[in-house]
Write a structure and sequence with these properties.
Elements lengths: L1 H12 L9 H25 L12 E2 L3 E3 L3 E3 L2 E8 L4 E6 L4 E5 L5 H14 L30 H22 L10 E3 L4 E11 L8 H6 L2 E9 L2 E3 L3 E3 L3 E7 L16 E3 L4 E5 H6 L3 H19 L4 H4 L3
Antiparallel strand pairs: 1-2, 2-4, 3-4, 4-5, 5-6, 7-8, 8-9, 9-12, 10-11, 12-14, 13-14
């Protein structure tokens, strides 16, 4: 075991630096890519059988970008990959069919038409709602001429952030014996997330909401990475952040002492935040991020009276 520890330390010391991701430097590309991913994820929601907490609507970090994973369609399966190295949207099927759409500056409306046409050529029919969600001032995909930027270098930096974060989130997930979500990428807020569950159902919400009731049917403590941006009701967050929250939030959680010292409670978002720039500047970004995740989880689990002995790996 001591040898394994030395290997881990050596691997960490040789880890690739986490790249810069200034919000203002890529916000136009970010806004366009956000809408493109919403189109693809709505296709996944249409083609994939429902899974609790809307897990059938997410994307996953893959070796070249973000993937839907294989989705059933009649007697075959189809997978859609945002390839952020070749900068193509790749559509493959289990009978060998293939279509590629270049990821280049183009409007959301043009991208939507090309995806629809490519699916048609592959004999795949899938109707989706064309209205974006969880964004201020939404524009239908078919009408959106406003968002049309694509900076390949910025997208590659973003992808490398996802790669590094995905690895840490998976390590954190592996420490938990209870129910846990996959590490997955959500379409609404454009965030990578992993969620732990206490095993208990949550109290019914005062105001019924189909989306929220399904997402938070059980007690959770969730962690994620968000590139920043405008959040309805909370203004604009001008830099990328890691976040942590609990639903339902136990009494005293907002005032809990958490680590590292760079982390803080956002009154606007009602979440704990850790700036991405603090993590990438740390001697060990991995250890700082894990400290944040462990600290916020421990506070929520203790105050929420989770059965930690049964849920956590010794």
């Amino acid at each position: 075991m001591a040898g394994a520890g030395r290997i881990d330390e050596a691997d960490t010391s040789r880890s690739k630096p986490w790249p810069p991701l200034a919000f203002q430097g890529w916000k136009d590309t970010y806004a366009t890519l956000h809408m493109w991913t919403q189109i693809v994820r709505k296709l996944r929601m249409t083609l994939t059988p429902s899974v609790n907490h809307w897990w059938h609507t997410t994307l996953y970090v893959a070796s070249r970008g973000l993937t839907t994973s294989p989705m059933p369609y009649r007697d075959r399966q189809v997978e859609i990959l945002f390839d952020f190295l070749d900068h193509e949207l790749k559509i493959t099927t289990t009978d060998g069919a293939f279509k590629a759409i270049p990821l280049v500056p183009r409007s959301v409306a043009a991208f939507y038409r090309e995806v629809r046409d490519a699916l048609g050529e592959l004999n795949i029919e899938a109707k989706i709602s064309t209205m974006p969600v969880e964004v201020p001032r939404p524009i239908r995909f078919s009408d959106d001429q406003q968002h049309s930027s694509y900076d390949p270098a910025a997208v590659e930096r973003f992808f490398q952030v996802l790669v590094q974060t995905d690895a840490v989130f998976k390590a954190f997930r592996g420490r938990f014996l209870g129910k846990s979500s996959p590490v997955h990428f959500f379409w609404g807020a454009f965030d990578l997330a992993v969620t732990r569950f206490s095993g208990r159902r949550a109290a019914k919400r005062e105001k019924p909401d189909l989306v929220m009731d399904e997402a938070y049917s059980h007690e959770v403590i969730s962690h994620g990475f968000w590139p920043g941006g405008e959040w309805p009701g909370a203004g604009v967050v001008e830099s990328p952040v890691f976040y942590a929250y609990a639903v339902p939030e136990p009494a005293g959680f907002a005032e809990a002492a958490i680590r590292p010292p760079q982390a803080f409670r956002s009154r606007e978002l009602s979440e704990f935040l850790l700036p991405y720039d603090a993590v990438r500047a740390a001697a060990s970004p991995r250890e700082m991020l894990l400290e944040f995740m462990e600290s916020t989880y421990a506070a929520g689990a203790e105050l929420g009276r989770w059965d930690r002995t049964a849920l956590e790996r010794p």
